[in-house]
Amino acid sequence: MQQSTEPFCPPPVPTGKRYDKVDLVEPDGHGYLNLAAEVDRRPPWLPASAPKRALIEELKTRCADLEARSDVVEARVFVAQLIPPGRGAYLESRPHVHIARFDVVVHIITEDVAAAERLAADGAFGALRERVTEIASHVHEVVAHNARRIGDVDHDRDGVFLFNFFTADDTEENLAVWEYTAGWFQQETGLDNSTLMLPNDPADSDYTVINHCRWDRWRDIIPSLVFKRTFRNYVLASFEARHTAAIPILYRLA
To answer: What is the CATH number of the domain that holds 43?
Structure first.
């Protein structure tokens, strides 16, 4: 599919509201190592299987050990709470794209990108990866850097955490459409944090970018997605217009 060379312009909004680009701060310079796994086939709101519960406890222990390293800023384990159904027209026409159903995510922040690359090749992380691979039906691992940032994501207290796995025909257009649609989330949901991760090597990732952010409560985000028409006719329409699809999954801290 041929890409448009026109600058990104979000679609008009019937309500008359206008959404500007999101307010950003400088990227944080950290490295990111993200390991996402599909462990249980059952919906995430049902009780987890015994193997999954055991895996989560083991991963928390391993992450605590990794946090003792001087080059690791944070290492956290997330468990899915809501995986929305549906693909949308863009994904339906691209059956080769893996539809993320990751119910467990290990998210590691390092002091810089070089540290993330070293950690990915380190035996300690290799053992963690091997343990996940033993039980999961599908695993996605990526080393990334922070390309856009609204603010730091607070991992010291629980909340509603989003990992949004994007796929697009063109990375630059993915970044452009994210800046406008993140403006909608900033205005309509009060979003004040987000780190957008760009893979260091696009060939190593199924997804063009991965967005990560947090809200305090379910009521901060779910009503806007369900009841605000502009989510459909602005956010989703913007993705569709620029051949981009978002695969969002909502999590809690393990």
So the answer is: 3.30.70.100
The answer to whether residue 21 is domain-embedded is: no
In a domain, 23, yes or no: no
Q: Which domain holds residue 90?
A: 31-248
> Tens digit of pLDDT for each residue in 82-135?
998 766 778 888 888 889 999 999 999 999 999 999 999 999 999 999 999 999
Q: Is residue 1 part of a domain?
A: no
Percent of the chain with pLDDT over 90: 83
The answer to whether the CB of 208 falls within 8 A of the CB of 60 is no
